[in-house]
Amino acid sequence: MDPDKRRSLLADAAERGTRYLEELDAGPVYPGRSEIARLEQALDAPLPDDPTDASEVLAFLDEFGSPATVASAGGRYFGFVTGGALPASVAANWLATAWDQSCFGFVSSPGVALFEETALRWLKDCLQLPRGAEGALVTGATMANFTCLAAARHAVLEREGWDVEDRGLFGAPEITLVVGEEVHATVLKVIGMLGLGKGRVKRVPVDRQGRMQADRLPEVDGPTIVCIQAGNVNSGAFDPAEPLVSWARQRGAWVHVDGAFGLWARASRELAPLAEGLEAADSWATDAHKWLNVPYDCGIAFVRSPMALSAALSTSGAYLLRSDRRDAIDVTPESSRRARAVDVWAALKSLGRSGLAEMIERNCRQARWLADKLVEAGNEVMNDVVLNQIVVSFGDDERTKKAIAALQSSGECWCGGTNWQGREAMRISLSSWATSQADLERTLKAILAARLAQ
Ligand SMILES: *Cc1c(COP(=O)(O)O)cnc(C)c1O
In angstroms, what is the span from residue 435 Cα to ligand 1's centroid? Predict the structure, then answer.
């Protein structure tokens, strides 16, 4: 490609991306049916026989694709647990895409490997995890849970004299998995992927906030893995770390923490008590694309024992050149991968320790403000708002469902539904740097209007 053409193409991409973000606030938070249909129609074409000019390809994406996106990068998207992307991390991501590094090891990209070492060191620092723990940047908390539980599976079977990577699970000693009744669906998925049996887990009853009840743990015998949750996807509640860890220690069990968003409480002095005691675990999974507000996809696994992690995931191949440094390919399920570390490093560098704590605390303050206003207006907030999550009911199930549908179609903001303690409810997750007080006020107004219309 002609250098001038390339320059104008990439400048156009930056311009269109910037304009998209600038105009996000003016449009609906969820695309209309007609925008989706328009894109579907435009895409309904066979693979072209001949090339298309790259500038035309980009224009198509923006003209038909941009209007069909969900404004989750903006300040009024509260579905699932969805972070926006900090400007520094978007910029870093764009540059790193231009670099197009293969990040499987030090040899394939020494530069990114150095960013990765630093990003992981900073993450352990701000999340107050053991300095000697090994980390891995993966696609999300699902794969972070996978990575951690692969290390756990290795370690608990190694103690029984069984090499699971070599021999598989055929004839292996049985592993007992202990999870809470409110375990995240992806932890069960991962348990299935690792051959540990979703249907074999021992589920511990939970209290009204969804926390495991430490006095109702099962009898266990032999190799055991306990999965603790830091941050329930509905209520934001934390399983009680200290009694769970001490129960596990007495039984020689591996303790894994699914802290996809809740682990970030540890970055704030004010919120850290919620997550106290989790540092004593053996492994921790979290997301960066949620509360650290970096672009998708980015999750992080930490394992206290670097040996357990590399025993579970290291690879060999004559052509996969090794260095005497950390090679990501030995501690992640992936081989070739993008430079996630660059986005993470840029987010942490731009925020600093105080900016990170402030962002997490701000979202929690916003959740308390909104919850209070909803209660004042006569709605039932069903959870203790300890973190960034609100679960709200608008009356009976039918009314709640209708109010959620009305709110979603208003385009003013987007919140999803859930079933909490056997009742239909709406979830509000405050996880974005981009949410302002004005966004909250507009959201409150929209929620109250959607409820009144029922
Ligand atoms: C979001 C979430 C996950 C899964 O994370 P992905 O990034 O979607 O893979 C797992 N556990 C909890 C508690 C979550 O909130």
Answer: 21
Query: What residue owns the CA closest to ligand 1's atom 13?
Result: 260
pLDDT (tens digit per residue) in 175-222: 999 999 999 999 999 999 999 999 999 999 999 999 999 999 999 999
- Residue identifier of the C-alpha nearest atom 3 of ligand 1: 141
Give the three-class secondary structure for 419: strand
Q: How many A from CA of 169 to the centre of ligand 1?
A: 26
Pairing of strands 224-229, 202-204: unpaired
76's tokens: 């009024």
- CA angle, residues 292, 375, 395, in degrees to nearest 5: 105
Cβ partners under 8 Å of residue 381, min gap 6: 371, 374, 375, 390, 391, 392
Domains for the chain: give ranges and CATH numbers. Answer: 3-69 (no CATH), 91-347 (3.40.640.10)
State the residue for tokens 């709605």: 379
Provide the token pair at 131: 């300095």
197 — alpha (psi -120 to 50), left (phi > 0) or beta?
A: left
In tens, the pLDDT along 411-453 reads: 999 999 999 999 999 999 999 999 999 999 999 999 999 999 8
Pocket, ligand 1, Cβ cutoff 6 A: 81, 140-142, 184, 186, 231, 233, 258, 260-261, 287, 299
Q: What is the pTM assigned to this prediction? A: 0.98
Ligand 1 centre to CA of 141 (Å) is: 5
What does the block give as tokens for 47? 């693979």
